Amino acid sequence: MLQPGSTGPDVQTLQTQLKELGYYNGAVNGQFTEPTKIAVSQFQTAQGLLADGIVGSTTWKKLQAAIAAKQPIITAPVPTSKPRVEPQPSKKNLIWWSVLGLGTLGNLVAVIYCLKWLHQVKKMQQSQAANSEIKTEADRNISIPQLPESTNNPVSASNSPSATTSTPKLLPAETTSRLAKFSLVDELMNDLYSADPAKRHKAIWDLGQQGDSRAIEPLVDLIIDADSQQHSLILSALGEIAIRTFKPINRALAISMQNQNPQVRQNAIRDLTRVYDMMSQITPILRHALEDADPEVQSTARYALNQLNRIRVLSEQESLPEQREKDG
């Protein structure tokens, strides 16, 4: 008989068997304490015995039978362990796997792109090599017939199968691949001496639109023997060329005045002013035109002089402070 207060290996066996059947959760220490008594009472209740907490022969037989069958009959509530919770994937692991998947996908895309790029480069190299071979073959095919050998030499005539047979000679690639340079201004200046008046008029007009200073001298030479219509057209072209020439001169002066070197600024003022000094030589010619027999010519000359005087007055108003004090 085992009851509260009993100790020893029998109590230890009792605790072990009750633990196997799920009634006892305490320590297996061989001491019949209150937790052991509660476990025995629960087992007795489940077996329909008197729940006095004392292990007698009947209780012991029932316990051994339950252990042998390993089918505990539990009707009374017994303490159970906490339900096992299946581990759920954490949010951190989900993010890590997502990043890993994106990285793998990115590497795959990069590899595919590199393969396509290498394929395109290889294809371009093959195309360039094919074009180079075609060009080389075309250069080799370009040839000129060689002049027939002279029949005055009897030795060469006797050695050759035919005196008139010529051997083709290939020209170097540099000679055949380059095109002659074309200058529109040069072609227009050549048209100034054409026998066709319409062609000359067109050349004069186009040279004025080109604004190339190389055409000034040929136009001045042509004005001597030109008719009235052509004369006016030449003057119009010269005026257009002059305007287009003075624009870069003004720009060059403005850029030079911004140079950090004072010597450059001084040279710009001195050199470019000489160009404008030449324009002042037109004044005597305009004064002579005031005595022209045609009234309209006189009126035009008077207008031109007024314009020059207006420019001169503006220049005097913008003179240096020392000059204004001296004049005062």
Task: Tell me what the structure shows.
The protein has 328 residues and is mostly helical. Helices cover 66% and strands 1% of the residues. It is built from 14 helices and 2 strands; from the N terminus they run ααααβαβααααααααα. Strands 1-2 form a two-stranded antiparallel sheet. α1 crosses α3, α8 packs parallel to α10 (228-256) and α9 (216-223) runs antiparallel to α10 (228-256). The protein is rod-shaped, with a radius of gyration of 60 Å. It starts with 8 loop residues before the first helix and ends with a helix.
Short description:
With 328 residues, the protein is mainly alpha-helical. 66% of the residues lie in helices and 1% in strands.
Question: What attributes characterize this protein structure?
Answer:
14 helices, rod-shaped, single chain, mainly alpha
Shape: rod-shaped
The residue fraction in helices comes out at 55-70%
Note the total helix count. Answer: 14
Cα-atom radius of gyration: 60 Å
How many DSSP-defined strands? Answer: 2
Order of neighbouring strands in the sheet with most strands? 1-2
Task: Give the biggest beta sheet.
Answer: 2 strands, antiparallel
- The class by helix and strand makeup works out as mainly alpha
The mean pLDDT is 76
Strand content: under 5%
String of helices and strands: HHHHEHEHHHHHHHHH
SSE blueprint:
Layout: H1 9-21, H2 34-47, H3 57-69, H4 91-141, E1 143-144, H5 154-159, E2 169-170, H6 173-177, H7 184-191, H8 197-210, H9 216-223, H10 228-256, H11 262-279, H12 282-289, H13 295-317, H14 321-327
Antiparallel strand pairs: 1-2
